[in-house]
Each structure stands twice: as structure tokens, then as C-alpha cells.
Design a protein that fits this description.
It is built from eight helices and no strands. It is mostly helical.
Length: 219
């Protein structure tokens, strides 16, 4: 992807989010400016990331847990888009004053997005949107992978939690707890089973080195 094309896609992506929230709402709400800023920075990092090819390289015949890939894909709309629309239309014509917990949600959203980007940067070309292990690629054990074995999923959960808190979204909170969290737990169990079978001793060594799957010092 050339530089101009990448910038155009980045601009269009950010504009769509602004339109979903209503440009007038964004103009008079600093919270939404902050939200769009995180969206813009995250998208720009994704566009120029070594992993920017991931969705284009998805092959369903290689996916060892196809249904979880679909659920996580759909969660983009349920946990990111739906809370924005819920926030916009629930309070029409005027949005309520911003509370401290809205800013906390923005902070969580930014932290989760940063963690996901960090993990993608560490993965490089190995970052794929489905459950697959390529024997030719090296196991990544540094950066966020020294903290937990699945930092990208942790980043996604924190991101969606942040969105739910930021927008006070019942839809986002319910979908996160009832759908996304169980799906990710099942997905990473399948991934670890595959990694153990494919990488053997290297994976076992990494498990001892980084004991926690998703939450540091917890699980």
C-alpha cells in the first residue's frame, strides 16, 4: 500500500467515526475529540504496521477456530459501533455533561488500543486474524509477550471495556461479558493447544517463562 492510499484510508476511517457520532456533537464535546484522536492514532499505527496485511491474508481453510474469528469480527460492530450510536441517539438532542467515569473510559480505551498496537508491532508479519501457527515464524516472547501470553486479546478486552464505560453503553457491556470474553477464553485455549503441538519444547519453555495467559499475576 503506497503512502497516499494509506493516508486516504486513514482519513476516511476517522471521518466515518465522526459522522457516526454526529460532527456537531464532536465539535462541542471534548470527550469525543479525545475519542476520535485515539481512533485516528490507532488507525494510523495499524495502517503503517507490519501487520497491516492481516485481514487480506485471512484464509478460512487455515483457521482452526473459524467461529471465534467471526465473533471477534462482528464484535467490532457490537462493541465499538453500537455503543457510539447508543450514546448519540439515547441523549438526542443534547448530550449530557461529561462525567469523570467517561474520561476513565477514554483512558481505558487508549490503553487497550496502545497495548494492541504494541503487540501487533512485536508480531510483525506473524500477526494474523485467525487461529493458525506457521512453523517458519519465530515465537515472540519479548515486549508485551513477556507480561502475558496473549497481550493482543487483553488489549482488545480493555479497549471494549473502555468504550462501554466511555459511552455508558449497556449494549457494549453486555456483549463484552456475555459474548466477547467467553469467546476469547475459548479461542486462546485452542491457540495454546495448537502452539503446544506445533512448537513443542519452545512453547513449554515460554509457558514457564510467562505464566499468565491474559491477566498479569492473575491468570
Amino acid at each position: 500500500m503506497d503512502f497516499i492510499t494509506a493516508l486516504c484510508r486513514f482519513a476516511i476511517y476517522t471521518l466515518i467515526f465522526a459522522l457516526l457520532l454526529d460532527v456537531e456533537n464532536v465539535q462541542k464535546t471534548p470527550l469525543l475529540w479525545g475519542y476520535l484522536a485515539v481512533i485516528a492514532v490507532t488507525r494510523l499505527a495499524e495502517v503503517f504496521s507490519p501487520a497491516s496485511h492481516t485481514l487480506r491474508n485471512y484464509r478460512k481453510d487455515e483457521d482452526h477456530s473459524r467461529w471465534t474469528s467471526w465473533v471477534i469480527g462482528i464484535s467490532f460492530f457490537i462493541n465499538l459501533i453500537a455503543p457510539m450510536l447508543e450514546y448519540r441517539y439515547k441523549f438526542e438532542p443534547n448530550l449530557p455533561p461529561t462525567q469523570w467515569w467517561n474520561w476513565l473510559g477514554l483512558l481505558l480505551f487508549a490503553a487497550g488500543s496502545a497495548l494492541r498496537i504494541w503487540a501487533m508491532q512485536q508480531d510483525g508479519a506473524a500477526s494474523v486474524p485467525h487461529v493458525k501457527v506457521d512453523n517458519k515464524l519465530k515465537l515472540v516472547t519479548n515486549g508485551p509477550y513477556a507480561l502475558v501470553r496473549h497481550p493482543s486479546y487483553l488489549g482488545l478486552l480493555i479497549t471494549y471495556l473502555g468504550v462501554a464505560v466511555l459511552f455508558g453503553s449497556v449494549i457494549g457491556a453486555a456483549a463484552l461479558l456475555a459474548v466477547v470474553l467467553p469467546t476469547i477464553i475459548l479461542r486462546l485455549a485452542k491457540e495454546e493447544q495448537l502452539l503446544s503441538a506445533k512448537l513443542g519444547e519452545a512453547w513449554q519453555k515460554y509457558q514457564k517463562q510467562t505464566a499468565c495467559r491474559l491477566l498479569p499475576n492473575v491468570w
